[in-house]
Amino acid sequence: MRSEKEAKANLERAMKQEFACPDVCLVSNGTHAIEVLLTAMDLPRGATVLVPELSFLATATAVARCGLIPLYADVSREYLGLTLDSVKSATRQGVAAVIVVHLAGFVNRELQEIASHCRAMGVPLIEDCAQLHHGFYKGVRAGNVGTAATFSFQSSKLFNCGEGGAIVSADESLMTQCKALINWGWPGEGTAAQFDIPSSNYRLSYLQCERLAAELAQVGRKVAALRDFYGQIAASAAKLGKTYLRAQFAGDFIDSPFFFMVTECRPNHQLEPRGQYPMSGSSVVLAILRKWFPDLVPRYLQANAGRAANLNSIHVVENYGFLRISQFDGIEAVERELEQL
Ligand SMILES: Cc1ncc(COP(=O)(O)O)c(C=O)c1O
Prior knowledge:
Blueprint: H1 4-19, E1 24-27, H2 30-41, E2 48-52, H3 58-65, E3 69-73, H4 84-92, E4 97-101, H5 111-121, E5 125-128, E6 136-137, E7 140-141, E8 148-152, E9 165-169, H6 172-181, H7 206-216, H8 219-239, E10 243-244, E11 253-254, E12 259-263, H9 283-292, H10 297-303, H11 311-319, E13 321-324, H12 331-340
Parallel strand pairs: 2-3, 2-4, 4-5, 5-8
Antiparallel strand pairs: 1-9, 6-7, 6-11, 8-9, 10-12, 12-13
């Protein structure tokens, strides 16, 4: 059996190659990855962070847990992510960071434009890639367009080690801070410990490293299987007269659909009981702020008072069905679900 150090180094090498990134920080899960990254960015307490109205609630809870205020902006009905327009209007109000989520495995179709806008505004852009492991935007791996990106390797994801996460970025000093924050202040071999930062233990265990390395080695087979199953579901949906978001497997955008998104149907939110959609209605985010940052609650509520205007997000919540592709064993089970929508 490999030593802990070798297992971690082996996974880091494989991840850098697979994710085409210069550095990686392995973390206990995808929620901690966002929390650690935001902490490493050292944003002022109570600063506003733009998040999509539609995501798994971890995106917003992580912001709140860091003593920051989530501001919810509308998403596109076509690709489910923040639009350039929604980012522009929110950044006019002043935000300290923007988090784009490649929801359901669909690459944000305005990623480069949003990234350019954020660069011009001097605002860091985070890509939450928890639901997109193998996406490309004009040949660039999604996760490498913004300032930094976070991933989840929880059991339902394409690459899975039970629970796990990662942060990737080309910003060396940001990565050093992330590595220190997850490991009681010590970024690793050849570096000095930092005992004056709010560090903790958010490490990925070496058993998880071994499992994840084995998953990455299967990338070709996994991606092909996913696409094949997506194609089968699409054929069944067409047969049943359902409309759906079309994933692209070639061209400018290469998706890695995590959910099969049926549009204009009877929605099925019982599928994800932990989800709270849209997120501005999340009682969990509010509970976190009330518990640890009660003074921020009035500003949080005020900042999001007009969120009823996030009409596309509300439309998706009320009219789209989410079928998590990895949840099904075979096409018969999917067809039974499709018929309910
Ligand atoms: C968009 C998004 N962000 C963050 C997370 C959090 O990841 P984890 O479950 O590994 O904490 C998830 C989990 O599914 C997610 O879907």
